[in-house]
What does this fold into?
Amino acid sequence: NAGVMQNPRHLVRRRGQEARLRCSPVKGHSHVYWYRQLPEEGLKFMVYLQKENIIDESGMPKERFSAEFPKEGPSILRIQQVVRGDSAAYFCASSPLSSTPYGYTFGSGTRLTVV
Amino acid sequence: DAKTTQPPSMDCAEGRAANLPCNHSTISGNEYVYWYRQIHSQGPQYIIHGLKNNETNEMASLIITEDRKSSTLILPHATLRDTAVYYCIVRLGSQGNLIFGKGTKLSVKP
It folds into this structure.
C-alpha cells in the first residue's frame, strides 16, 4: 500500500520561473492538504482540497500560488514567478473520504530551491 | 495559531524513557490531542492521539490530565532513531486542519 508520493524530491528554479509540485495521495484518499516549511521553522498549512474542489485556502499566499486536485491524476501546487523567499520544503498529506481519527499521511516532501 | 505550548528542546539518554510535555489549556470538549514527529528532512509521522483517556500503541503512550489541559507523550525506551521534532496538536474531532506549532526538539544521546 503505497503512501503519499511527492515529486520531484528536489526542484531548483531560477527567479521568475514556474514551479510545479505534484502529490499523489494514498490510494482511496480523496482529501489532500499542502503545507510549507521554511528552513528552521514549523509546518504552515496552505490549502485543503477534495477532488475538483478547494475547501480551505486560507494559508495560501494571495498571488502566484495555486493548487488543484483534478478528478484524475495527482494534486498540483503551482508557484508562478518564483522568488528566493519561496525556497522551502513543501509537504503534501492525504486522508480518506470518510472522517478518520488518525490524522493524515504525509509524503516525503519536495524541496524547492530558488536561485 | 497553534493552541499548544511545548518546551523548545529536551535531551534524553538512550534506553531511558522520554517524557514530552504539552500544555493545551484552552482545549474544548470535542477536541483531540494528536502527536506527530518529524525526523530530520522527512515528512511528519503520526504517533498517537487521544480525547480524554490515556492511550498506548506500539510507538508511545499518551497521558492526558483529568482536566485535559495538558498531556505527556512517553517514549518508553528512547533510541537514537527517536531524535526528532515532536509536535503536539489539538484538533477538532476527526475533521479540521492540523495546525503545527514549533514542537519540541528531542535529542536522544548515547
Q: What stands out?
A: The interface with chain A takes residues 2, 32, 34, 36, 38, 41-46, 49, 87, 91, 93-95, 97-103 of chain B (CB under 8 Å). The mean pLDDT of chain B is 91. The longest strand of chain B covers residues 84-92.
